[in-house]
Amino acid sequence: MRLSLAFGLFLAATPALTTPALADVEAVLDTHILPGTAAFAEAAQALETSAAADCRPEHVQPAWNAAMDAWMGIGHLRLGPQEQAALTIAFWPDSRNSGRRTLARVIESEDPLGTDAEDFAQVSAAARGLYALETMLYDPQFSGYAADSYECRLVQVMTEDLAEQAGDLDGAWRRKFAPELRHAGEPDNALFLSEAEAERALFTQLHGGVEFNADQRLGQVLGTPGRPVPARAETWRSGRSLRNLTLSMEALHRMARALAEGPVPAVDEAFDAVAYFAEGIEDPAFQDVTDPAAHVRLESLQGQIRMVGDALSLAIGEAMGIAPGFNALDGD
Amino acid sequence: MTSRRAFLAGLMAVAAPKPSWADAGSPRWLACAREADGAYALFGLAADGADTFRLPLPARGHAGAAHPTRPEAVAFARRPGAFALVLDCATGALIRDLTPPDGMQFNGHGAFTAEGDILYTVEQRATDSRGFLGIWDSAYRRIGQIETGGIGPHEMLRLPGGGFAVANGGIATDPADRTKLNLPDMAPSLVYVEDDAIAEEVTLDPALHFASIRHLAHEDGTLAFAMQWEGPAGQVVPLLGLHRRGAAPILASAPGPEQALMQGYAGSVAFSQGEVAITSPRGGRLHRFDARGAFLGATPRADICGLAPCPGGFLTTDGGGGVLRVTGGQARPLGLRPRAWDNHIVTL
């Protein structure tokens, strides 16, 4: 589960009146979010088409990888329709292996739920979406199925379900949530009571996405001191742990530029440093994490990513008058 | 025959009517907040969400207790509490600065009796976090204390009929800060207190012992309790419980993915006309249920926490300064104030 911070107005530093115009919210929507949700919907549709033509793993894998790439462009957005959709499209980390266990049970019993995309939406989130498909396509315990098997139909159903979700997500952004952001501060808008609130919501996504990359994409595999956990690397079976991280950071960089209405040197430098450290990672699946030298390299990369988070807070967040949420942080 | 003393008292009453909440602008609710300049204050809110009064506080407040008739409010510091200020909301005067006895700490909540002759303050013993209710008379003199039967009590609620409910959160904290000391062994409970004694204790399945019972609301014989999960992150658990005296508690959840979005944290709970709601500032959403625990829907709002019943639904406040009315799950802004509202709204 992702524990991101809600960001609130940093009242003491900057009154709401001095925050910049809404142009940056429009830019984030028009150059980052909406093209991203459209691209993901298209990639998920292509994945469904590919699986329908030939369900076997080696045939479906390229389209699945393209869909994963597209998701990395928007996966950091956890607001509006994507707050809930992210759980059923991209259930990760799955520390208790719920996805594999549910899929195993569904296949073992040849559950009729697995043969109809509409019914399939009832199964647990962990057994749906991109990460469950990785299990079917790359995990040797699942991927040995034949063209006319129950699993073959299941994979087709899973891709239909994903395409449906991706299309709904894109539609919901366009019809409902993007207009809410654009019309922040208008009398009936109960989601965003001011333009500053819309900016704050987007900044929270940006910062949360960077934190997720450090805390989860690297934190999971790095484990606790002295106990790295290779099996917790994201999509290690498909060998794309580093690719996910890199694509996500690139998308976050584009979002930062859009939100800040142009390049911010301190932020650009921090993102560039991440790219540089990422080049030094040897195993794209992070399976070498048990080797102390590789562990240090991954930890250094994690440190660089955290510095992006700091740079964003200092160079963009504070300039916009934003600080972590008042109640979300305090608790009680 | 009328005594001289009663006659004089009668004269006084005519000459100087007893102050009432009307003298404080007839607020319907009270709430603490941090203001734009970093200062803290207690606000009165009118039925339309507008401010009726503002009284400065020396530090961050948490919740309050309102006197049933006199325009007096006790503003509690966030726990571990150093202050509980009795304020005259009509004049702004500080009536009393309550201090817990040596070795005791206020825990952020308290309640008056229906007549307003006794104030109870939720407290814990600093050394071991054992829970107590401090008892104060109508002149705010300490007259005693009783045990709550648990560790780390948080909210208490007056019930119709004279008793109180107390949420024993179960978490022992460091005497000097809020470091949690006993999570592996925490054992929260819900107790009903009648005539200063525990009349009924409710505990949950041991599998849910990480669910700290912290906040309370009541309507038509059903007590709602809101919980905060201290167990493994990622485990999706119920955050709302409903209890009727003598029965087993009912636990209520939203469907899986929606429940997960609450981040294991409910910060406030309220009942309104057969609906019960909880808020999660971490998840940025309000969840509504019916009185039997069936999920009705989610309403998103960043850093939402303050929650109270209002005609037709719920009033909410948040860390962004928003005051909203939620009717049938539909939120309508009542105002955006230059302040960060604290966790709770006290209904008068």
Structure, explained:
The complex is a heterodimer of chains A (332) and B (348). Chain A has 332 residues and is mainly α. Chain A has 2 domains: 7-21 and 194-330; 25-182, M75 peptidase, HXXE motif (A middle domain of Talin 1), CATH 1.20.1420.20. Chain A has 12 helices and 2 strands. Chain A has helices at residues 23-53, 57-72, 81-89, 98-108, 117-120, 129-138, 150-182, 195-222, 241-259, 265-279, 292-317, 326-330, and strands at 7-9, 322-324. In chain A, strands 1-2 form a two-stranded antiparallel sheet. Chain A is globular and about 60 Å long. Chain B has one domain (21-347): 7 Propeller (Methylamine Dehydrogenase, Chain H). In chain B, strand 10 (130-136) and strand 11 form a beta hairpin. Chain B has 348 residues and is mainly beta. In chain B, strands 3-2-1-28 form a 4-stranded antiparallel β-sheet, with no helix packed on it. A 4-stranded antiparallel β-sheet of chain B has the order 4-5-6-7, with no helix packed on it. A 4-stranded antiparallel β-sheet of chain B has the order 8-9-10-11, with no helix packed on it. Chains A and B meet through strand 1, helix 3, helix 8 and helix 12 of A and helix 2, strand 27 and strand 28 of B.
Major sheet summary line of chain A = 2 strands, antiparallel
Query: Helix- and strand-based class of chain B?
Result: mainly beta
Gyration radius of chain B, in Å: 20 Å
The counted number of beta strands of chain A is 2
**Whole-number average pLDDT of chain B?**
93
The CATH level-2 architecture of the largest domain in chain A is identified as Up-down Bundle
Give, in order, the helices and strands of chain A. EHHHHHHHHHHHEH
CATH topology group of the largest domain in chain A: A middle domain of Talin 1
Q: What is the helix/strand order of chain B? A: HEEEEEEEEEEEEEEEEEEEHEEEEEEEEE
Inertia-based shape of chain B: globular
Mean pLDDT of chain A: 92
What CATH architecture of chain B would you give?
7 Propeller
What count of domains describes the coordinates of chain A? 2
Strand order of the largest sheet of chain A: 1-2
- Helicity range of the residues of chain A? 55-70%
How far is the N terminus from the C terminus of chain A?
A: 21 Å
Give the C-alpha Rg of chain A. 20 Å
Largest sheet of chain B: 4 strands, antiparallel
